[in-house]
Each structure stands twice: as structure tokens, then as C-alpha cells.
Design brief:
The structure is a homotetramer of 208-residue chains. Chain A has 208 residues and is an all-alpha fold. The first copy, chain A, is built from eleven helices and no strands. The first copy, chain A, has helices at residues 2-30, 33-39, 44-50, 54-77, 83-100, 104-113, 121-143, 152-168, 170-175, 181-184, 193-206. In chain A, helix 5 packs parallel to helix 8 (152-168). Chain A is globular. Chain A binds a DNA duplex (21 and 21 nucleotides) through residues 1, 3-4, 7-8, 11, 32-34, 42-46, 48-50, 53-54.
DNA sequence: AATGAATGAGAGTTCATTCAT
DNA sequence: GATGAATGAACTCTCATTCAT
């Protein structure tokens, strides 16, 4: 039975992994169940046996991914003391997450674009958790006399928007000659220099 | 013959309008040619007769949309003098464009998500034009001793990312109870207060 | 437009005809939409275009068939005077209908077997109409002092059961050597001698 | 080893029982092997191990059922003396069998409807045995000067048709409001009053 | 230009059957 | 004997595209 369970876990893991990839590349409607099965090296019927139909598969894959993200984020922030330090951590953690799971920006963008029609409630929770984390940091900063008064949600949009747009625009930037060299030189990694620049700008914007 | 041409124009206009709507709502793969024909009140075969296949239709619709956008942007910026004034204009113009053509954010997000596979080169040009506009404003500001040194592309991502994320997240925010009231009160319009907040933050970030 | 309509009618007619055949042979679950399309010499998608899904197709086919049956029955009975004459007509008309539409017994048997799960209400009406017709004949006979008191529904089951069982058992009888020659000689036609025998027995049973 | 055999018997018995149920409800094509396994509380692969594929399972189930039926019938008839008494026994025995094994009418109807494609030869034998039993009774009656000359097969169809139609139509009658109350009051049991009515009519029909 | 009908290539899903343990 | 997992061939239904009129 132990073996069975291992096998099952291994199979569902492969399925969800492949699903995440394909959904990120093609979106829900564009994704093909055949393609997911192919990449998971699994018979297509196994997807229905282990998980369910395409919608259920999408929900499962999203949930896995965003749970990881919000949990990692929360864990990371707690380690620092000052609001400024926390804000920096927030930005860098976000950037690193997106570099490590490079399919995430595409999924996020697509879900926003479709008005979140396919997002399970549980994933929305993950989003608001992240938003709340940032909001608290900013309020803390205000209380400590370090930050100016802002609309936290707008700051959130700036940070998250910048990171995701940067990541998601990578392929276009590198493929199209129309983009200037200064842009091309930036590469596709967001953690590191880009995150540092975002950090610099955001901190300058909110600091008293 | 004049009548014919008028009729033709009217028909293609209706088709492209409907296509823009449907593509914005459902994405390329999710859009149905039948649905586009229905909304355009046109026989499905007419789409193929006047415009071509689904891909061609998508390209046409995108082109119309982004040409308008970049033209409007360019026209607007030139009117102001100082770099700071121009930067404000840039932000507000972008916000207004997105409010007026509310399908744009969804399309932009989706195209980014798919690595711009369907974007015609001409549209990429429109994008880089906008980027260049902002870059020049920022350089101008530096030259005039008003702005600090920044990576213009990152500033661009912050502005464009914030505006588009704000707009695109509207439906999710208003639908889901998980979002706090302070967020819900922001509404779905980006021009006006939201744009003012973005302007405030961006200017504070880049100002010397 | 006249031509279009003719074409449409012709196509839907062929589809329903083929559907009736295939459903009669294989039942709802056993019928294949591909097979129906093949026999109707029609592209499979046309079935969905003109009529709808498999269930809708089944309902349509059944309705066509049973409406014809009950209408023909009612029309035929009215022409005769005495209860005895009407009862004879009833039996013979039933027999002839089943000979002319030889797929009917199979469909009736199958629907009974499945508890009428797929029968549209409208078809049930057709059934009760026929039952009422027979009931009235028997009551009339009692009133006129010609028939004994009976349970009309049981008489109905005997007549309808006999005719349908005879017809439906035709293929088995002629295929299997185990049936005695006296049975094989009866053939597969129910109108004619078989109906006459049923008539003889039923009349002897109910006559005073 | 004895235990093994008992276990085996128990398992195959459960499988066949479940199969009979499911085939009666849904027919061959509509029946799901998964469902049969579920109802038999048995792993699906066990069905293949113990019995064979779906067709073999169907044949086995049918055979069990009809062997019981024909054996019980034969046993019962022999006990009586006069042709009239035997004919009564025949009818009542048939009715009781159908009440006790209420899945039988559905199976019989379906097999007739499909032209007996799945009936094993051995089951056909059972059928003809029953038919021969009735035929002999009727001939005996003629020889003894009690019955008129009839076509025994037609009498057979009347009896068997009436009983099976009555039983099989039970669910439809009780479910649909279109049936008159006099019909609804008859209930779903065929042995007892309904059988008595059939007996009365058949005897009146064949008696000299 | 316009229309309704037609086509064919998939897409998602189900299911009988088999395998490995 | 028994189990959960796996397989592959259908099957229903959809959709972009084209045809005939």
C-alpha cells in the first residue's frame, strides 16, 4: 500500500506539474488535455481517474502553485524587523518566486484578463493574504513615522504589476528587434538588479 | 458603388468591434467565430469573405486597437513643456485610454502571457513607441536636473503594470468578498484618483 | 428560400428516419451517432446543427413515430358502428401499423424495459390515448349487452402484448432451429392470419 | 480448499446477481462494468478473473435466470391433471415467477427487441421448452374435447405478452399522471388478481 | 454581398479491458 | 485471489472553415 501511495502521488504530481506548464503557456481554453498527458508521460484517462475533468485539473494546479507562493511569502517576511526591511523583503521575495516559478506570471496575467472566472475561492484567499501582508507593512511604516500616507492597494499594484509585467514581457523583448539594446541588456531575470531598482523606486516613493 | 463601400466599411467595422470584445473576454483560443458573427449581426461566412480566418481577424482587431492607443498617446504628450508635466500627462493619458477602451487591459495581459505570439510587428512598434516616449521624458528630466538616474524600462513597467493590473483586477475585486472594503471603495475607474495616486508615487520616486 | 427549406426538411427527414432505425435496432445507449449520420448520408455535425444532441434526437424520432401511430388509430376506429366491429378494427389496425413500421415493436419493448426513462411526456399521451380508445370500446360493448365485464387494461395488455411479442420475436424464431416448424410457418407478418387469430380469441373471451 | 471454493462461489454469485440487476435496468450497452463491480462489492478485475468479459458475463447472468425460470415452470405444471387445470397453473406460475424475479420482464423485452443477438442457444432451448409445455396443454385440451382448435403460439404470445407487458409497464404507470386511476389502482403485482383476470379471459377464449 | 448548409479535424470524456504487485 | 493503476479505443460533441445558391 505504501508503494501504491507513492506511485499515486508520483503520478498526480507529474500530472499537476505538466498541467501547470501547459495552462501557463496556453491558458485554460488553449490548453489541450492530450498535451498535458503527453508531458506528464501519462495516459490521458489517468488524468480523469486521478483528478477529474479539465476544470478540476486547472483548479488543482492553480491551488498548488499559489498556496506555495503565499506561504513562502508569509514565512519570509516575518524574519525582519523594520517596516522598510520588510518592504524590501517583500519585493525581493516576490521577484525570486517569479524567477523560480517562471510560469506564474503568465497564469496570473491570464486569470486577471479573464476576470478570474476559473479561480477557486481558495486561491483568491492566497491573493488577499499577500495584499494584506503588504498593507500591514505600509501601515506599520506610517505608524513608525517612516512612510508617508499612501493607498496601499495602489502600491501593491505597482510592485506586483512591475514584477509580473517585467517577467511576462521577457520573451517579447528578447525576440523582437524593435526593442532598444538598453532594454535587451536587462535580461529576463527579475530578482537581482531589476528587483533592486524596483525597491529603490518604491522606497523613495513611500519614504517620508 | 459609394453605397457599397459604405456598407462594406460598416460591416467590417462591426466585425472588428465584435471581435475586439470577444477576444478581450475570452482570449484567442476561447473566442468563438460564431459568437463574433452573432454580436456583429453578420453571417459567419462574411467574416471570412471580408477579413479572413480567425488569426487574421485577431491581428486586425489588435492592430486597430493599438494604433488608436499609440496615436492618442503621442498626440497628447507633445502639448506640455517640462519633463514633470509630460510625465504626469503620460500617466493620465494612459489611465484615460484604459478607461475608455476597457477591453485593452485584458488584451494586453493576455498577449504578454502568451509571449506575444500573435502580435503583428506593427503593434510591437506601437509598444516601443510608447516606451520611447517615456524614456525620453525621463532622460529629459535628468538632463534638466529634475529627475534622478533610473532605469526607464523599470519605471515603465511600474506605470503600465500598475494601470493595467488595477483595471484588469476590477471584476475580481468587485465580485469576491475576500477583498477588504478599503479596496472595494476604490471602484474600477483608473483615471482620476487612482491615476493621481500613481502620479504622486512615481513622481516622488523619480524626483531629485 | 423555398429551396433552402426543402433542403432542410429533406435533411432532417433523413436524419430522423435513420435515427428511428438505429434506435430501434440498438436502443438509446447502444445507438451510435456516427452510425445514424452514416445511414442518413449526412455529416455528423449536421445532426447537432439541425436537431441537437443525442437525447433531443431520440425524443424527436420517437415523437414523430408515435404521433403517427395514435393519430392513424383514432382515425380508423371512428368509421365503424358496433363495439364488436370497433374491437376488430382496433386489433387489425394495430397489426397493420406494426407491419408497416416494423421498428416500432423494438422501440416499445425497449422503452418499457427501461421504465420509460427517455419517453417525452407527449408520447405517453399517445399511449394513453390508445388505451382510452380500447377502454371505451369495451365499455360500449358492456352497455350494449354484448360484452362481459372485464378489466380493460388487462385486455389491452393481451392485445398489445401479443402483437408486439409476435412481431419482436420474428427474428429469433426464424433464426433459431429450436423452434418447431408449425411456429416457423407463421412467418413474421402479424396482420392477416395472426391478427385474425388474435381477434377470434379476444372476441370469444369478451363476448357474452 | 473448501473455504476457497465457498468464497469463490460467493463471489461469482454476487457478481452474477449484480450483473442481472444492472443489465435489467440499463440493457447490455447501457450497463457499466464499473457499476456491476460496485454493486457486487468486488474489484472490477475480479469479474474478468472469475467470469470473463462483458459479453460472457451477460450470457452467464441470462443463463442463470432463464434456467431457473424454465425449471420452475416444468416442475410446477406436472402436478395437475386436466388440461384446464394445467393451463391455469401455467398462467399463475408465470405470473409468480415474474413477481419474484422482477428483473425478468425487462431482460426478456430487451432481448426480444434486439432480435435475441446475445441469447445463448441454451436459453433459446429454455424458451421453446416453455412454449412446448403450453402447446401440449392446448393439444391435450383439444383431444379431450375441452378446448377449441387454436394456434398455440398465438395463445402463448397472448399470455406471455400480457404478463410481461403488465409487469414492465409498472414503473411508467405509477410515475405518469396521464394514466387513469382505474389503471393505477391495479398496482404492480401480476400474480393474484391480474393473473386471475388473464386466466379467466384465456380460458373463456379457448374453451369449447 | 449574403445566407444556410455542409465538412472534417479534433477536443474532452468514458469505458471495457489488462497489468503489476 | 485481490487491488489500484494503467491502457487504448471509442464516443459524443464542437468549431474553424468552406460550399452552393
Amino acid at each position: 500500500m505504501g508503494t501504491q501511495t507513492v506511485k499515486r502521488n508520483e503520478t498526480t504530481r507529474r500530472i499537476k506539474g505538466a498541467a501547470t506548464e501547459v495552462f501557463a503557456e496556453a491558458g485554460f481554453a488553449g490548453a489541450r488535455v492530450d498535451e498535458i498527458a503527453r508531458r506528464a508521460r501519462v495516459n490521458k484517462a489517468m488524468i480523469y481517474y486521478h483528478i477529474g475533468d479539465k476544470k478540476a485539473l486547472y483548479a488543482e494546479a492553480l491551488h498548488d502553485v499559489f498556496r506555495d507562493m503565499s506561504e513562502g511569502m508569509a514565512r519570509n517576511i516575518q524574519e525582519s524587523q523594520t517596516a522598510e526591511e520588510k518592504l524590501k523583503r517583500f519585493i525581493h521575495n516576490l521577484a525570486e518566486t517569479m524567477d523560480q516559478h517562471s510560469y506564474l506570471p503568465a497564469i496570473i496575467l491570464r486569470e486577471l484578463a479573464s476576470g478570474g472566472q476559473n479561480i477557486p475561492a481558495v486561491v483568491i484567499q492566497d491573493f488577499t493574504n499577500i495584499l494584506n501582508t503588504l498593507t500591514k507593512i505600509l501601515e506599520e511604516g506610517v505608524d513608525q513615522g517612516l512612510f508617508i500616507q499612501t493607498t496601499p492597494f495602489v502600491v501593491h499594484m505597482m510592485v506586483v504589476g512591475a514584477v509580473n509585467f517585467f517577467k511576462a514581457s521577457g520573451p517579447i523583448r528578447s525576440r523582437h528587434p524593435a526593442f532598444p539594446d538598453t532594454v535587451k541588456k536587462l535580461g529576463t531575470k527579475v530578482s537581482g538588479e531589476i528587483a533592486a531598482e524596483i525597491e529603490k523606486l518604491i522606497l523613495k516613493a513611500v519614504r517620508k
